[in-house]
Write a structure and sequence with these properties.
Distance between the termini: 26 Å
Oligomer: single chain
Number of strands: 5
Strand content: 5-15%
Number of helices: 10
Order of helices and strands: HHHHEHEHHEEHEHH
Largest sheet: 5 strands, parallel
Helix content: 40-55%
Shape: globular
Length: 203
């Protein structure tokens, strides 16, 4: 709240002196701010998320904003902050959000596009075919499935930043499928995934 209050309406990123300016430049990235690659709300989201990661017991973030709300770039910058601090970073999102080509490692969707524009490297993981390879200084990107969540539960440790994206929508889609098609096992999967995410965030 202090960061947000002291940066709103003072033109801090355009040269007006502010005691928090250098800290915000360091957290977010001076070049991203100067080149207007993030708007003020996205910058606030990054600063608030970094503070939460650094001051709360668990280094996990569940992003609750829906599609089209400008959350992809803050997620990427938050991941980059962790990687620059030589931490392992794991971003988990729904498959439709990144349209991955697991054979070539190409990442599509807004995540792939924004990562390229921001100059933030991502490593696509495929937990179905091989174990997750989480390494210090690297941002690993994986999609929601039981294999990813089980692998994450086994590998996440105190040196890992975990960013959960689109989880609420995953649950909502499962509920819709269950209601419309009465797919057997959907409710069990939904509950299992929720428990796995909870346990990952508690590590």
């Amino acid at each position: 709240k202090r960061y947000v209050k002291e940066t709103q309406g003072v033109g801090w990123k355009y040269g007006v002196k502010n005691k928090l300016q250098s800290q915000i430049f360091k957290l977010v990235g001076r070049n991203l701010i100067k080149e207007n690659k993030l708007d003020d709300k996205q910058i606030e989201d990054v600063v608030a998320s970094v503070w939460a990661m650094d001051n709360l017991p668990e280094r996990s973030i569940i992003v609750s904003k829906g599609p089209g709300t400008g959350k992809t770039r803050p997620i990427l910058v938050l991941g980059s902050h962790g990687a620059k601090s030589n931490r392992k970073v794991l971003i988990i999102t729904k498959q439709q959000a990144i349209n991955p080509d697991f054979k070539s490692g190409v990442i599509g969707g807004s995540m792939g596009k924004d990562a390229q524009e921001l100059g933030i490297p991502l490593s696509l993981e495929d937990a179905f075919r091989r174990p997750l390879k989480l390494e210090p200084g690297k941002i690993s990107l994986a999609v929601f499935d039981s294999d990813t969540l089980r692998e994450a539960l086994n590998q996440v440790d105190e040196n890992t930043d975990v960013i959960i994206d689109e989880f609420q929508e995953v649950l909502n889609v499962n509920k819709e499928k269950k209601a419309k098609k009465k797919i057997k096992g959907v409710e069990e999967k939904e509950t299992r995934w929720a428990v796995l995410v909870r346990d990952i965030c508690r590590k």
